[in-house]
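Morning!

This is the sequence you dropped in the shared folder:
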Amino acid sequence: MSVVTPVKMPKWGLSMQEGAIVDWWKQEGAEVAEGEDLVDIETSKITNVCESPVAGVLRKIVAQPGETLPVGALIGVVADADTPEADVDAFIADFQASYIPPEAGDESAEVLKLSTVDAGGRAIRFGRAGPEEGTPVVLIHGYSGDLNNWLFNIEALAAVAPVIAVDLPGHGGSSKDVGDGSLKTLADAIAAALDGLGVAEAHLVGHSLGAAVAARLAIDHTGLARSLILIAPAGLSETAVSEEFLSGVIDAQRARDLKPVMEMLLADPGMVTKDMVEDVLKFKRTDGVEEALSALRDRMVEGKDAATLRADLAAIPSALVIASKADGIVGAPDEAALPPGFRVVWIEGAGHMPHLEKASEVNNLLVEAIQAS
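The structure's back. Tokens below.
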């Protein structure tokens, strides 16, 4: 039988159980490239594009717009143009006969296995995925986010290395104690958490505030960073972090106030869903969160940590910077001001969240950089 590749309902995030087909970008019989946009899928958390897993021809669209299917369900089929129709039909029949939808709470369907570790008196939540052996990829999210911000990247990374996603102090399931809110305090907390997990060396991947924390980690904790990847990094531009965004997150008490603030993160505001907004509102209602976010906001607006970080970057031998020139939150990093070992890759069509907005492109860069280290 010829090679036939299924296109399945993806698993985006810890709680995703199903998704709805919004619209297909391609028609049956159309040629597709690996990683090309294939179909828009809406979940309770986010709306995004499912990309083709391989190059070939979209031979069958199994799930039509408006249909809601569980994670892992067959939504389409890609094969070569010369694959017999009978082989495609037989593949679909066999898949549908053997497919078992994941049950709610089924641990085998989880993206991350969650736990906490003590980090100098702070509880730090983390999640693990991928193999047990090897140098881990440590993912550090940005301001007002949590480890779920990596929902489009974990599967690709876990295919090549162990993955540890952490919640920064003040965020997610971690302690809400951020101390003085400095990059050093945050970096030292993550270093203590990694020490508690027995991690002496890691591929550090950070986004926004998390990128600044990752860079501070690499500078202050010599030998910890086997490689360093900074996505839309805060602190690498002379442009100040958007106080409108930082304060907007803190001040918004209703969904209608928070939604336009969150839309600032993305080139396509339509990616922001009602549930995404509600999740942030729910997080903000947790005791200590607004105080923590306020302390971090004030420190970032002050700008001294960022200036110190830029002055210390020369201590880092090499880093990959993934950024967008349309980033309205932290601005575009100044390539000319970065140390010689820093390489910048610009992502077109993205805002401040390229790892969500252009996941396939960013994932390819992440895997390439990790495997080359």
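Headline: The two ends are 39 Å apart (CA to CA).

More detail when I'm at my desk.
O.
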